[in-house]
């Protein structure tokens, strides 16, 4: 990992900026004062995908959720685990009626049992019965969406306006923000653009951010509780460092550059911050790590590329621990 402190003044491409925003949110959320939370990126629904998602949690309940599993639950698994009864019951009596055939619920019961999340048995009339091993906690406090635009000029603001109007009217998130890079002008350009007044604006400068415009608190529909929980589970599962899963850290040119407190992927061959689209199997500059690299201080099961994955995974778990403790971010 190289030190790019001398390049910290450069304006980042959108992908690198997005990672810096995620790292800032992980360390310093919320602008009004520290709140236990974790961060994910590129999540949403069929209608809308957000750049950054911050899930604020109840620390004690979050600890109980982590005790259930360190992996996120998909929609089917969540339905079964969340409604698992304390005593043996036929699955149809425990789970709210789905909008699809009941037969599709049974595999999720078997899967949950295989993961140790519930117990199952054959009851009377050979019915599938199950019960919980531990209650599913009410761990999500709030869901916050952030759109990242390092250069929020007039054209970028126009492109965002309709999406943000949708976010405000739909109110799936409790708050909506736009993060942009500060310019140092007397009046930041973002404040002059035609954005919904309910949307907050964050000015990002290096490792810090300031509130240029405070958001309004939205009122999510109680009917969306399950959708919000599915979103939170996906965020818990993925985090924001999962970008490495679709990149090539096993390439000899792959680096993690320091941008302040964030580690941002950089390509030494192209001398640029790459994106997931650029750092792919089709990249003509890809060169696999030399075998000798895997024998110089790195664990025998892999070279620097494997090490990058372990570093990012360890950082994700450390931040989960921080949210669980409910301590102030540092």
Which descriptors apply to this entry?
alpha+beta, Trna Endonuclease, Chain: A, domain 1, Arc Repressor Mutant, subunit A, 3 domains, 6-stranded mixed beta sheet, 30% helix, disordered N terminus, DUF5787
Q: Which second-level CATH architecture of the largest domain applies?
A: 3-Layer(aba) Sandwich
Amino- and carboxy-terminal Cα gap: 22 Å
What is the number of domains? 3
CATH C-level of the largest domain: Alpha Beta
Strand content: 15-25%
**What spatial order of strands do you see in the largest sheet?**
1-2-6-7-8-9
Q: Can you give the mean pLDDT?
A: 90
Shape descriptor reads globular
Q: Low-confidence segments, ≥5 residues, pLDDT <50?
A: 1-10
Largest sheet: 6 strands, mixed
Structural class: alpha+beta
Oligomeric category:
single chain
Query: Which radius of gyration do the C-alpha atoms yield?
Result: 22 Å
Helical content class: 25-40%
Region (Disordered): 294-330
InterPro entries: DUF5787
Biased composition (Basic and acidic residues): 310-330
Can you describe this structure?
The protein is of the alpha+beta class. Strands 1-2-6-7-8-9 form a six-stranded mixed sheet, with helices on both faces. Helices cover 30% and strands 22% of the residues. It has three domains: 12-61 and 139-241, Trna Endonuclease, Chain: A, domain 1; 71-132, Orthogonal Bundle (Arc Repressor Mutant, subunit A); 242-325, no CATH class. The model is unreliable at 1-10 (pLDDT under 50). The chain starts with 13 loop residues before the first helix and ends in a 5-residue tail after the last helix. Strand 6, helix 6 and strand 7 form a beta-alpha-beta unit. The longest helix has 22 residues, at 304-325. It is globular. The chain has helices spanning 14-28, 59-68, 75-82, 91-94, 106-114, 154-170, 225-238, 304-325; strands at residues 37-44, 49-57, 89-90, 118-122, 128-132, 140-148, 175-181, 200-205, 208-213, 254-259, 262-267, 272-273. The chain has eight helices and twelve strands.
